[in-house]
Amino acid sequence: EGPEWIFIYLVSAQYEYLGYPPSYPDPEHEHYQAPQLPADVPRIQLRLAGDKRKHNEGRVEVFYDGQWGTMCDDDFSQHAAQVVCRELGYVDAVSWSPSSKYGKGEGPIWFDNLHCTGKERTVAQCPSNGIGISDCKHTEDVGVVCSDKRIPGFKFVNFLPNHVESLDIQVEDVRIRAILSSYRKRVPVTEGYVEIKDGGRWKQICNADWTPHNSRVICGMFGSVTRMFARRRKPTYWDFSVNCTGAEAHLSSCKLGQQTEAVTNGTCVKGLPVVVSCVPGRAFAPTPMTGFRKAFRQEQPLVRLRGGAIVGEGRVEVLKNGEWGTICDDSWNLGSATVVCRELGYGTAKEALNGGRLGQGMGPVHMNEVQCSGFEKSITECPFNKETVDCSHEEDAGVRCNIPAMGFQERLRLSGGRSPYEGRVEVLTERNGSLVWGTVCSEGWGIMEAMVVCRQLGLGFAKNAFQETWYWAGQVSADAVVMSGVRCSGTEMTLSHCLHHGENLQCPRGGGRHAAGVSCSDTAPDLVLNPQVVEQTTYMEDRPMFMLQCAYEEKCLASTSNSVPANSYRRLLRFSSQIHNNGQSDFKPKANRESWVWHDCHRHYHSMEVFTLYDLYSLNGTKVAEGHKASFCLEDSECDEGIEKKYECANFGDQGITVGCWDTYRHDIDCQWVDITDVSPGDYIFRIVINPNYEVPESDYSNNIVKCRCRYDGHRIWMYNCHNGGSLNEETEQQFPGLISNQVTHR
């Protein structure tokens, strides 16, 4: 059955991040010369195998004399890695790894003590002990990481025609190309001819022996799932068929099939080129579609991504026993990462990330040594080791998934900035039947809107949001305002998905120098408050007004304290706050030190007037008491092992919280409380919000809230069930009525 809708587009490569220009045909490249090897050089083939985290890395394996073997790491060098990568069709080598980083191989160790200069056309030309002569074990198997970019014009040369089924596919590029020319500008790609670039020419694949497994891999590379059919056309055919199992994350991990038999009229045996029809995941689906509703049932998800800058990337978190936790990166590879990506409605994994590279999580580590086959419906179905004693959040696993090429970046640009990461925001919009560039009204423009801009452009996280851009000379022709009233939640994929005025523009301040601007950054901090510390340090104190003069001046008491005598008492709910920076960059106050406010009573500078909010709610969600805390001093109280403190408030020092450190506001300092003098005994919900006004950008705001159940009997007070926002399942969150949302509602 044909698709209800078909968008077809000439899609750029997955091998090159920047892709190709949208024009067709492709630009001319320097012609690749296949190596002409002397007769006495052994004929070998290479592949990258093992526990890969990207398709262009792995254990170096060599096919010689009818069997696969490995290379020893003795005397291996960056020059040898360059020869390996170029032989595989990559422009360069990024790095190499000794000691079987990608797992131990099998078979002979074909090369030992390699001494390459980097100029050789094949590893077999490098001086060594001699092929097959080695005193190494497989614990010394060497691995390489090759560049993402492929050699222009690269052509696969098969030196071993009798063993073709043992070889991995090595081509310059892959794309899905529109069947009808009228569809070539539509996005995202969902249907078209599968074409590979070999020897500088795009070629189609004969559908002899083509299977749904092959289609599954191709669609996955382009961020989708599969449908399949074929149509006729006179193509130029590639010389080989394709043999995928369906579990591969990338075509380069599939095996070559048999050489195809061409007949005189240029067709293949069955006379048809391969065509795939793919379906983008639910996040990219057009709104009302019956097919999508059937395919994707809305249930409590078992896996989610956190801390990523763009759609389809993040730290992997799984739900177990009602609580969200992370996955330890031991044995974490592209196959397991692909199961996560497919479960979330994306394509295959582009990269499996380790070492907490997308920030550290909180709570339990639920899974370790995950081993997926690639066909599981959920990561929770994969075999894993329940023993996580040796794992910490420094080893949290993450993913980057392949997503459909939606063309979002082409409708937005930053203009006039000193680098590609900053500038005035300019939007491409339709006016009077033509597409024009224009600016965005800066009224109400803030960090949440900037976050969406940076995400849409693939520039990471927002660093700043600007309401004036006179210092950035944008395109004069784009000075006019074309978008106003923009309000984003911060999770949208594009600025056009945010609330805005549409065609009814309202912007009294105008565009030009007053237009909205942003600066972006690859990394961002992520503040997380430790809920156990709140629970363990809570107590109640009755304190006389004459000892609360400074706190009164800084409005840290309830309004009823305005008219009470100095010898009266205020009842204070006190607790400690331990605020961790689990992100990828330091948390620093928005204001520079020249604009910090000196408070003479407390004898310190406030770098943020409202850093945290403390609120007590009744069970129906009505606020009954509140407190707030200025950042008296943002500093590193303690740090994880191996991390040095960077920020200290003494002597007007720099303020901030370093990655891997935490700032502790002790229960016994001023304003670290809620004034509950006027609160009646009963059951309540206590809530703490860090960075409530989103003044400082963070990679994840959902964990900025801590919620606790609270019981007050008039004499004593207890906190229990304290947890971070979003750390429990939906059913448990329902026990906190009126406070379901993880985000603060006011702006």
TrEMBL record:
Chief place where the protein resides: nucleus
Matching InterPro entries: LOX-like_protein, Lysyl_oxidase, Lysyl_oxidase_CS, SRCR, SRCR-like_dom_sf
UniProt function note: Mediates the post-translational oxidative deamination of lysine residues on target proteins leading to the formation of deaminated lysine (allysine).
Post-translational modification: The lysine tyrosylquinone cross-link (LTQ) is generated by condensation of the epsilon-amino group of a lysine with a topaquinone produced by oxidation of tyrosine.
Cysteine pairings via disulfide bonds: C72-C136, C85-C146, C116-C126, C244-C254, C372-C382, C488-C498
GO cellular component, as recorded: basement membrane; chromosome; endoplasmic reticulum; extracellular space; membrane; nucleus
PANTHER family in the record: LYSYL OXIDASE HOMOLOG 2, LYSYL OXIDASE-LIKE-RELATED
Family (UniProt): Belongs to the lysyl oxidase family.
Keyword Transcription regulation appears in the UniProt entry: yes
Protein name in UniProt: Lysyl oxidase homolog
Transmembrane segment boundaries: none
Superkingdom of this protein's organism: Eukaryota
UniProt GO MF annotations: copper ion binding; protein-lysine 6-oxidase activity
Catalytic reaction list: L-lysyl-[protein] + O2 + H2O = (S)-2-amino-6-oxohexanoyl-[protein] + H2O2 + NH4(+)
BP GO terms, sorted: chromatin organization; collagen fibril organization
Keywords: Basement membrane, Calcium, Chromatin regulator, Chromosome, Copper, Disulfide bond, Endoplasmic reticulum, Extracellular matrix, Glycoprotein, LTQ, Metal-binding, Nucleus, Oxidoreductase, Repeat, Repressor, Secreted, Signal, TPQ, Transcription, Transcription regulation
